[in-house]
Amino acid sequence: MSVADVLSGVDTLRGVTTIAGTVGACCRVQRLVLPGGGGHTWTVLGSDHRPVVPAEEYLEYLRAQQVSPNTVKSYARALALWWQFLELFGLVWDAVTLENFGAFLTWLRTGDEPGVVSIEHRGARFAESTISARLGAVLSCYDYHVLNGVDVGRDLHRITHRGGGRYKPLLEHVARRKGRRQAVIRVRRPGRGAPPILTPEQIERICEACASWDPDTREWRGSVRNRLLWMLLAETGVRLGEALGLQHRDWHTGCGDTPYVEVVARDHPHEVRAKSGYRRVYVSDELDRLYGEYVWRLCEVGADLATDDFDGTCVFVNLDREPRFAPWRPESVYDLVDRLRRELSGQVPQAWSPHWMRHSHATALLLSGVPVHVVSRRLGHVDVQTTLNTYAHVSEDAEMRTVADWKAFTGGWRVGAHRDERIESGS
């Protein structure tokens, strides 16, 4: 059963709840509970409280492509903003012009309604990166309808033979003999800076604030679960959602060989997922021993008896709140982050987040000379270019250090030149 079938009757909307902070009264994003335990999804409702058909058709296409649920929600938010803009300005979705898209960007920044031109200096409603993402989602929706034969958005792209320095895959000149399509309406975003990282000392302080080893009693004091999470993120570079989705069957303890964890794409009650599909990530013996200590503590409090399939339960579960032994929520992790920020104020960056662990891991690997393609595979990037774009500053710093030592690098050149001259003269 498709989402459109679920939404075909008014009564079905009883299972739909509004997402907090949506775009307003005339057009909004709605969270939909699918029947039969099929999980959740999102759709866009217009001022008549009915689904916006063109938007829903595109969102259904995304669901059929099995894109991330968070991506569906993000695209639904963008389309809700677009249809709110259309209703406010009295526009028809399949009769828009390039000028209308330009006005949409202005409206995203200012929020001014028709007939209002503000001369007051105000901050933008959204960051430019958010505006760019919203515009990209709307253009993708129009591209979808163009491919389905709807006469919309045909002037939203142009054919160009020069990509302005954008990355192109190998043999691009063979595959693209007729040029590339580029969006006419684009948002110029500031250049991406270096991703934020934590130093090894700062990561250790975060871990020690959760649990520490008491040499006198020879046991861990504090929350081993919390320490295990931060050590796992810092040592493997996995995303927070991937860590929360780990099951005990995914952790392969070392038995004379190197221990590893498997990142597996599967459904999760809190809708976290392995973004890049399956991969195997090797871990250290220290992390493996900490996991063993954590499992022992779980068994002591009866976690193994609370289920018939302990191997199929999540590694990170509730221990101090109900429902006990239920999968840990991302929101609970961020509550822990807020607490650690207060406890470690002045010792770690105030704005640090779990994703900083991933950036720190990748930066450390690249600085130690690990090839970028190996780092890319470990992080689960679909394309190595993503790794290069995100951590270009690391490789550039390494190259600059090499150039700085150019005297040692070229020290033997003159000797080689004299040797060649002697050979040519026959001496």
TrEMBL record:
Coiled-coil annotated spans: none
UniProt entry tagged with the keyword DNA-binding: yes
Gene Ontology annotations of biological process type: DNA integration; DNA recombination
PROSITE patterns in the cross-refs: CB (PS51900), TYR_RECOMBINASE (PS51898)
Key word Mitochondrion present: no
PANTHER family: INTEGRASE_RECOMBINASE PROTEIN MJ0367-RELATED, PHAGE INTEGRASE-RELATED
Gene Ontology molecular functions: DNA binding
Domain of life: Bacteria
Assigned protein family: Belongs to the 'phage' integrase family.
Residue ranges of domain Core-binding (CB) in the record: 49-146
Keyword annotations of the record: DNA integration, DNA recombination, DNA-binding
Protein name: Site-specific recombinase XerD
Domain Tyr recombinase: residue ranges: 193-405
